[in-house]
Design brief:
Oligomer: heterodimer
Largest interface: A-B, 39 and 33 residues
Number of domains of chain B: 1
Largest sheet of chain A: 6 strands, parallel
CATH architecture of the largest domain in chain A: 3-Layer(aba) Sandwich
CATH class of chain B: Mainly Alpha
Shape of chain B: globular
Strand order of the largest sheet of chain A: 2-1-3-4-5-10
Helix content of chain B: over 70%
Distance between the termini of chain A: 72 Å
Number of domains of chain A: 2
Number of strands of chain B: 4
CATH topology of chain B: ABC transporter involved in vitamin B12 uptake, BtuC
Order of helices and strands of chain B: HHHHHHEHHEEHHHHEHHH
Shape of chain A: elongated
CATH topology of the largest domain in chain A: Rossmann fold
Chain lengths: 323, 331
């Protein structure tokens, strides 16, 4: 009997301790117990503009849903500026988690490792770091698939033969992967890539380059610009030349204007492939789930790049996003 | 006697000048011949019209930059200013559509000119009243204007109202008796600029301020006022370029006009205007703008160079053109 009472007592005291700590947690929660820092590139072109938009939106949504989480979004205009921002963040605050879309892989690897040494949970988005053991969570789109899925669709629609031109972006890993994914699939068909040139993910340069392609090649069956921003310039050049030989003009990334065209059933641009800037929001949510709920998140998450068609376009369309 | 001397002096000079003045045109001719031999499509009227039309933005802005550089100044902000002006122009056109209908285009064009002139005035006043190096001032405003367009567009793109698209499109894509409107607009700007620079007192004061500030001041030239005016002229040129630019893609984005300042300065210098001031060659600046655009066109039309090396060849051609310039000058 005595033994039992002691047991009951121990149980009771344990329960009290638990209740006290729960109350403690609740009291803490009001002044945000967990800090998640988000470091992303500044809005210098359409896609990064979308990243900033989705990051800020996710910040508001998460802070409203989980009062114990504070999200801080900082933007940086260069790799150096991003390193400085990381130093400032970790010097002034106790970070529970860092969600980072690194400007460049190599330059940011050391500084992020530094932040991790303080016990911060690291989520890397889009561009991986040079050392994959640093991140706890990795969220990215599939650049190879962006190129490969578009190419597979094109091979199918052109019946495995034809002549196409390609516009590529800024010399980076992202651009290389898309081009590789695309040309590997094309190489297995009889489609001939007439030329590939850089247009730096810039509408104006894409317009100019497409004008030159049109002047040089009397017959072009299809165009692939590896980004929807460039596609808009390409379409303008084709319209001006009044060329009827171009059956398909495709982009990638899922830009708002292009998804509108897909929705409207445009014949020349019937599809796009997503490399959505909203991946930053997916990453922030996954990171927050570590702290807000009992949903541990570790590992690598590769967002698929399925074709955006008129049937599923509304899932990739965000009316008030700038991109 | 003195009048005789004065008329004599230019005669001796005219015999020497043509070579140095002709240099950018000779360089342009050589590149044209090169292009024609590399690809037969190069000389097709479609291709040439495309290239000339698209070089009009840089050419128009380069006319303004010729004034600034000749007066001993520099403007690094033109590319960002261009983006900012297109942004404001698009916003005001979109706001005016419900009231004015298609006339909103004219309203927007007016806004572009005024905003451009004000941006230029802002640059000019800080430089002359604040007595700060133009390099630093315009580097600052370059960042400011760029940030404004990113802010206005939320980092995305700022399109013109759909109802204006069809009405406005011909300003870039249309032509008058075969000459595209942007080219006509460029010609008007050049002729007006050349008149101002070579035939008026103001023009002589611009080059005087650039060749020797102190001498100009002692001979009664209000150097500060002259320089400020050159920045306003540059602003108006940017406004005109914006009017031709908007109908092309129908949108302003954070990358609009990116690095144009370097192209403009390169065009002006290739054209024979001295970067240190005191000498102005408006037609040369325009030839410079054409050279830059034609080189890029030839690079795409020919298959000679790997896509990774295109920029290196462009850089090399510019340097060679300048060296040729130096040798013809030395003669």
């Amino acid at each position: 009997m005595i033994k039992i009472t002691t047991r009951v007592r121990t149980f009771m005291s344990a329960a009290t301790v638990a209740t006290v700590s729960l109350v403690g947690a609740a009291a803490h929660a009001q002044d945000a117990e967990f800090t998640i820092a988000v470091s992303i590139p500044a809005a210098t072109h359409g896609w990064t503009g979308g990243v900033v938009y989705h990051a800020q939106r996710a910040e508001k949504e998460i802070e409203a849903a989980f009062p114990n989480i504070d999200v801080i979004v900082t933007t940086a205009s260069s790799a150096t500026a991003q390193v400085s921002a990381l130093e400032d963040l970790s010097a002034t605050r106790d970070l529970d988690a860092l969600v980072i879309l690194p400007f460049t892989s190599d330059e940011l690897t050391g500084p992020v490792e530094q932040v991790k040494s303080n016990g911060t949970f690291i989520t890397v988005v889009d561009r991986g770091l040079a050392d994959p053991t640093i991140h706890d969570l990795y969220v990215a789109g599939d650049n190879i698939a962006v190129g490969a899925n578009t190419a597979a669709w094109l091979v199918d629609k052109l019946g495995g033969k034809g002549e196409i031109v390609v516009l590529r972006g800024i010399p980076t890993v992202i651009d290389d992967e898309r081009i590789k994914g695309f040309s590997d699939v094309i190489a297995e068909s009889d489609i001939k890539i007439l030329d590939v040139q850089y247009a730096n993910w810039n509408q104006d340069e894409a317009f100019t380059l497409m004008q030159d392609y049109l002047a040089r090649f009397p017959n072009i069956d299809a165009v692939w610009a590896n980004d929807d921003d460039m596609l808009l310039g390409v379409l303008e050049a084709i319209d001006q030349a009044e060329r009827k030989d171009i059956r398909f003009a495709l982009g990638g990334n899922g830009m708002k204007q292009v998804i509108e065209m897909v929705m409207a059933g445009d014949e020349r641009t019937p599809i796009s492939t997503p490399y959505p800037p909203s991946m930053i929001a997916s990453a922030i949510y996954m990171t927050a789930s570590q702290f807000a709920g009992q949903a541990p998140m570790r590992g690598s998450f590769k967002l698929a790049a399925p074709l955006i068609t008129p049937e599923n376009a509304d899932q990739f369309y965000f009316a008030d996003s700038p991109f | 006697m003195s009048t005789a001397n004065i008329t004599e002096a230019p005669e001796i000079r005219t015999r020497r000048i043509p070579w140095s003045e002709m240099a950018p045109f000779i360089a342009l001719a050589i590149i044209l011949v090169l292009g024609a031999t590399l690809n037969s499509n190069f000389l097709s009227s479609n291709n040439l019209l495309n290239v000339i039309t698209r070089s009009s933005f840089i050419a128009i802005i380069a006319v303004g930059a010729t004034f600034i550089i000749a007066s001993g100044g520099l403007d690094l902000s033109v590319g960002s200013m261009m983006a900012f002006v297109t942004g404001i122009m698009i916003l005001s056109m979109n706001a005016l559509v419900p009231v004015l209908g298609n006339w909103a285009i004219l309203g927007g064009a007016g806004v572009a000119l005024v905003v451009g002139a004000l941006c230029g005035l802002f640059n000019g006043l800080i430089i002359t009243v604040g007595r700060i190096e133009p390099f630093i001032v315009t580097l600052g405003t370059m960042g400011i204007f760029r940030a404004f367009i990113i802010f206005l567009s939320d980092g995305g793109s700022l399109p013109i109202d759909r109802s204006l698209r069809a009405a406005y499109r011909p300003v870039y894509f249309g032509d008058f008796m075969g000459v595209p409107y942007p080219v006509l607009m460029t010609l008007v700007v050049i002729v007006f600029g050349a008149f101002l620079l070579y035939r008026t007192k103001f023009g002589r004061r611009v080059t005087a301020s650039g060749s020797n500030e102190d001498v100009a001041r002692f001979s009664g030239v209000h150097v500060g006022r002259i320089r400020t005016t050159t920045y306003v002229i540059q602003g108006v040129c940017v406004g005109i370029a914006a009017i031709c630019y908007v109908p092309r893609l129908g949108a302003a984005t954070p990358t609009t006009g990116q690095l144009w300042e370097l192209q403009v300065i390169t065009a002006v210098v290739i054209g024979g205007t001295l970067l240190r001031g005191g000498k102005a060659r408006i037609w040369g600046s325009v030839a410079g703008a054409l050279i830059l655009e034609v080189i890029a066109n030839v690079m795409v039309l020919s298959d000679l160079v790997s896509e990774y090396l295109v920029a290196a060849v462009q850089g090399a051609i510019i340097i060679i053109a300048m060296l040729a310039h130096r040798f013809t000058n030395a003669r």
